[in-house]
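I hope you will forgive my troubling you with a question about protein structure. The record follows directly beneath this note:
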Amino acid sequence: MTTNDIDAPLILAVAPNGARKTKADHPAIPIAPDEIAAEAARCREAGAAMIHLHVRDADDRHSLDADAYAQATAAVRREVGDGLIVQMTTEAVGIYTPAEQMAAVRAVRPEAASMAVRELCPDEAAVPAFAEFLAWMAGERIMSQYILYAAEDIARFTELHKRGVIPGKRPFLLYVLGRYTAGQKSVPEDLLPFMAAAETLDADWAICAFGARECACALTAVALGGHVRVGFENNVLMADGSVARDNAALAGQVASGAKLLGRSLAGADEARAYLDRS
């Protein structure tokens, strides 16, 4: 069944900006490389081991440009060294094709990348290219995280994993809670269909969630042995409904709650070693 290891160190990831939000949504949304780097340092101090990185073009629009990723990654490394895993997004946002998404990862060669299975492998015709891409990632030792938006995505993922299209003994999943609910306001119960659907799947997993219940969803996952991604990409509200000062504030409240639940926080090197077990 899905790995539920409450004794494992918690891998706390932060998604500080996302593909769509601007400073009109929150003045502390980090967009420029130096802003992202400064936020990364604050989030590491708050307990994060990973940053989920989006970059923008000159007009602040979502981009998968390799040069923009190189600049942002270099800025983060100047601030934190290897103190955070830097994970690239492959999100399409209605702009990029699967071929372009995979080409972007090849161009960037990031430490880690996340990908939505329903985007990169939407049908059987897409399987050969997806399998070849994942084999290349494995050969390059790029850490993969597979994004699943609904419980039915797990059946598709499980089938691809059994066929060997998705490599690795223990893949790392991200359950997106409440993606298709009214107003995208997640609640902890949104985790239950994922857990039920993944009963026979041997995998590590994390969650992300939308709205003021993000922290409650995160701590539910923590209590069940999962991992967590929080941040302004999906939510700008603290657990009490107030607007968060920055991403580090969101990370910090989860880190504090995790300690009360008996979960230690993984540093970046510990997270790397844990996720390299497959």
